[in-house]
Design a protein that fits this description.
The protein is an alpha/beta fold. The protein has 6 helices and 6 strands, in the order βαβαβαβαβαβα. It binds magnesium ion and zinc ion. Zinc ion (ZN) binds next to loops.
Length: 181
C-alpha cells in the first residue's frame, strides 16, 4: 500500500507567474494555498511540488537562487513544520527533450519511487494542461486551476484529454479533492 500524494505545480498555481522568477522577492503566493495545503496534509496526503524551471538551462538563474526561492515558498506555506514533503524540478531546456519536463511524467515517476506513492490514489493540481497531461500519464486524478483562462481554453481545445475538475481557485480544488479522495 503506497502513500497518497498531491502533486502541485508551482508557477501560476502556488504563486503568481511573472515568468522565470529569479528573485525570492517576486515569489507571491496565491490566497488559499497555505490553508489548502495544510488541509491536504491533515488528510494524510504527501505534498509534492513539481515544477518546470527551464530558466536554469537558459541561464536566467542558478540552482542556488532556485533553492532560496523554495526556502521562501516553504516558510510562507508553514513556519512550524516541514509541510512540503518534496520539491522536484526540471532544470532542462525544452530542446533537451528530457523525460522530466512536464507534460512528461519524469518528475512524478521520481516522486513515486522515492516516496512510495500510489499514483492511482493521488491527484495533481496545476494551472496548465501540461500539468493535467503529466498527471493523466501517471494515473493521477487531475485538477486544473487556470491562471490565464484564455490561454488554457485554447490548450483544452487542443488536448485529447480532459481534467477531472476545473475551478477558479486553489482552495476550491482542494475541497473537490477531499470530496473525491
Ligand atoms: Mg504553472
Ligand atoms: Zn527535465
Amino acid at each position: 500500500m503506497g502513500n497518497r500524494a498531491i502533486f502541485i505545480d508551482r508557477d501560476g498555481t502556488i504563486n503568481i507567474n511573472f515568468g522565470y522568477i529569479s528573485n525570492p522577492d517576486d515569489f507571491k503566493i496565491y490566497p488559499g494555498v497555505k490553508e489548502g495545503i495544510k488541509l491536504l496534509k491533515e488528510k494524510g496526503f504527501k505534498i509534492v511540488v513539481i515544477t518546470n524551471q527551464s530558466g536554469i538551462a537558459r541561464g536566467y538563474f542558478s540552482e542556488e537562487t532556485l533553492e532560496k526561492i523554495h526556502e521562501k515558498m516553504k516558510s510562507e506555506i508553514s513556519q512550524e513544520e516541514d509541510i512540503i514533503d518534496a520539491i522536484y524540478y526540471c532544470p532542462h531546456h525544452p530542446d533537451e527533450k528530457c523525460n522530466c519536463r512536464k507534460p512528461n511524467p519524469g518528475l512524478i515517476e521520481k516522486a513515486r519511487k522515492n516516496l512510495d506513492i500510489d499514483t492511482k490514489k493521488s491527484f495533481i493540481i496545476g494551472d496548465r494542461m501540461l500539468d493535467v497531461e503529466a498527471g493523466f500519464k501517471t494515473h493521477c486524478k487531475t485538477v486544473l486551476v487556470p491562471e490565464n483562462k484564455e490561454k488554457v481554453n485554447i490548450e483544452m481545445q487542443e488536448s485529447e484529454i480532459e481534467p477531472d475538475y476545473v475551478c477558479d481557485d486553489f482552495y476550491m480544488g482542494v475541497k473537490w479533492i477531499i470530496d473525491n479522495m
